[in-house]
Structures are given as structure tokens and as C-alpha cells.
Amino acid sequence: MSEECEFKTDSKLLCTFFTVFRDVTNFGMEHDAHVAVASVLSNFFHLVVLTRKSMRNTSINLIMAAVALSDIYSQFFVIEQKIKSYYENLEMDKCYTGTSYFNVASDIVLKTGREFSRRSSTWLSFCIALVRTLVIRNPMNPTFEQLSKPKAGIIFILVICLTDLVISIIGHLQYEILSERIRIDCGPTTKDIKKVTSYRLDFSLFFMNNDEKYLKMYTDFDAIISKFIPCILFLFATIFLILELRKAEVRRQKLASSNSNSNSNSGKTTKLVLCLTITFFIAEFPLALIYALRPYFDDAYGILLYCYYGDYLFTTILSISTASHMIICLFMSSQYREAAKSVATCGWSSRRNNNTVTVRTSSHEH
What we know:
Elements: H1 12-30, H2 32-50, H3 59-94, H4 101-137, H5 142-145, H6 150-172, E1 175-185, E2 193-203, H7 205-254, H8 260-293, H9 301-332, H10 334-344, H11 348-365
Antiparallel strand pairs: 1-2
Helix pairs in contact: 1-9, 2-3, 2-9, 2-10, 3-4, 3-6, 4-6, 4-7, 4-8, 7-8, 8-9, 9-10
């Protein structure tokens, strides 16, 4: 058995695989702050582009904007934790004075907010695939066409956020702040020794009683609602989207050339949604499996280690995938490229295009 293994196993191959898996994850953990910064910048630009007047004309764009906002907060949480850890280490090097009540309370709020944003991002991303699948599956149905309108996007966002808010409030109740008196030794003399009140985060007694019954119930419920169910639905939505995309391609080839532009735009939108769905699914589905399997292997230390490192690894991959949304939209949507160009040039490119059109119109009149 290799000494590098953190659990007992007679399989050298398994041990080697775990070692590589652990090292790759540790490398990602060392650079997760850099990934988070890149993701925040990318999603902020993505959000600005999607909220332009020319882009707010479809439900998918509005939902993508909400996803970008959720992802910004999720990645901001990573950055905040890194900064906080850095300053805590500096304080430990000088003289530890305990953790303040405000720091612990803000940690609870930020942690709850991150769970809210990640849960919302998951369901909103699923809504994008769902809306596009239903629209292209029922192209001549006025009822389903309404799903592509901005009003439908706002309704989806409100319903998901309000539902998520209720779950987050319940999750917030699982924490409580405890205080304790600690002895501080900041110097060589007895005068430098003092006692201060320090605060820490812990689970509430209500959730911990009865062999952690309610804590396990909430954890399982959150894992199923936040990860497993949307990812299973995501799988089916992706399959249906691919099938409908193929059918739509056949239909477009049979339509008259007069409708070729609108059909081409529709096809590009569908491919855009498909790309966003696949990139999200790559990271989110493994996380769903980890969340679902973890409660059942409390005594299997090796599996728990895989879950622990897998959680960090695929969370980092998820951060990378969220940063790629802007890039995918740039490649897949000409409308997005025009809006992005306008944002990047502070509207100069749009004014230039308008002036060009005006000049051409005037020359034709003369």
C-alpha cells in the first residue's frame, strides 16, 4: 500500500488514481480565488450586456442575466473567504483577540446567501433549457410562444427566487452563534494575559437533537432539491433539446427562403442554449451525485475523501463553466456580439453604425 494514500486499500491502481485526483484538486483549490475573480469579471460584463435594451426582449436573456447575477455572488463569496482567511492569519501572527459577533453573524448571512445563489442558478439554468425545448417543440402554439416573452422570464425568476428564499430561511435556522471566554497571551509578562469573549458558529440544538434528525432531513432535502432533481431534469431537457434541434433543422430546410433569417436565428438560439446546458451539466451533475451519496457513507472514509475532494474539484469546474457563458454567447449570437461591442466601446460602435445608416440613407435620397 502506498504511503501517499489517506485510506486503507490493497489496490495500487486505486491509490495512484486517488493521489492524482487529490493533487489535481489541491491545485484547483490553490487557484480558486483566481478563477473566482475571472468569473466575477466575466459574469459582470455578461450581466451588463444582457440587461441592455436590445437584449431584454426575450425570457431566455432575462433568465441568463439572473443566472449571471447569482454566479457573481457565488464567486464573490469565494473571494471574500480568501481575503478573510488572509487577514485572520495576519492577526494570528500578531496576537489573536478572538472572533467578533459581527464576523460570525456576517459569515452566516454570506453562507446562506451563497446557498441561495447557487440553488437559484441551478434552477434558472434548467429553466433556460426548459423554455427553449418547449418553444421549439411547439413552434406554432401561441401559448408556448409566450414563454419566450420577457414577462415569462420575470415570472420564472420570481417564482424560483421566492421558493428558494423559503428554503434558505429554513437553512439559516440551522445555525446559531455561541460565545466562550478564551485566554489570550500576548506578551512575556502576566500583565499581557487577559480573557476575551470569542464567538463561533455551530449548529442549533433543534437541528442536532435526536441524533441530528432534523439536520439530516434538511441536508437530504437540500441536496435533492438543489442538486439532484434539477440535474436529472437537466439530463432529460438536454436530450429533448438535442432531438428537437435535429427536427428543427429538418423543418428549416423545408421552409421557404423568405423565412431563412428568422429560422437561422432560432437555430442559433437553440444551439446557444444547448452549449450553456452542456457546460453546466458537466460540473453540476457530479456535484449532485456527491451530495446524494455523501450521507450514506459516513463510515466509509475512502469514499468520504473522494466526496470531499470531488466537491472542491467540481465546484471549481463549475466556476470555470460560469465564466465561459459570456464566451459562448459571443461565439453563438451575433446580437450578443453587437451588444457586447457597444458596451465595450461605451456605445461608440452603436453611434457609428447609426451614423453610417443615416449617411447611406441620405445619399440614396439625393
